[in-house]
Amino acid sequence: MTFEIEVNGRVRTISVERAGTQCGRFRVIVDGVPELVDAQRFGAFGVSLLFVDAQRQSGVVHLAPAAAGGGSLALLDGVTVPVAVNGRRTGHGAADAGAGAHGEQKVSAPMPGRVVRVLVAPGDEVAAKQPVVVIEAMKMENELRSPRAGRVRDVTVVPGASVEAGRVLVIVE
Q1: Which residues partner with 60 through β-bridges?
Q2: What are phi and psi of 95, to 5 degrees?
């Protein structure tokens, strides 16, 4: 299968095919560069990726539906980015959920977790990529950032609250 995936405004072509008979082993070609990957589901929205031959760092990628724009959110190493699969074909690019968009933007939980800190309040001015909420998931703190500059319209969580993947935490307008 071949996909176009847009991450942070950059479109990448990715092909995925099973590699041999081993369960969970795939040959992944990103922009013409092949990698052998062991992939396993990790929780409801996570995928554990182990690069078999590579010098690359293996890790866990969490995916969750974006609150708006029809795309997804991906969390890797504490950084959340909007992702669109085949966005050119569907008309839903990752940028639709990001900084260039007009109107209200929602910061959503990319995975289930617990709110550790809320860093903004309604009425606060925020810059693009400014931290707004810290969530703990799998014993790791993940700083979620504003998708654009604007004013915080609403904060829907408090420290200590449990949240499910996709839940809207902060609305910036």
Answers
A1: 48
A2: -65, -20
Q: Is 45 exposed, middle or buried (0-12, 13-18, 19+ CB in 10 A)?
A: buried
Sheet with 113-118, side-by-side order of all strands: 140-145, 131-137, 113-118, 162-163
SS (H, E, C) 106-153: EEECCCCEEEEEECCCCCCEECCCCEEEEEEECCEEEEEECCCCEEEE
Check whether 23 has a pLDDT greater than 80: no
| Domains of the chain with bracketed CATH | 2-172 (2.40.50.100)
The arithmetic mean of pLDDT across residues 2-25, rounded, is 77
Res. 96 pLDDT band, cuts 50 70 90: very low
Is residue 132 within 8 Å of residue 108, measured between CB atoms? no
Report the candidate in 12, 18, 44, 49 with the shortest Cα–Cα distance to residue 31: 12
Model pTM above 0.70: no
Q: What separation in angstroms does the CA of 163 have from each of 38, 84, 85, 108, 152?
A: 29, 23, 25, 10, 19
DSSP codes, 58-99? PEEEEEEE-SSTT-EEEEETTEEEEEEESHHHHT--GGGGST
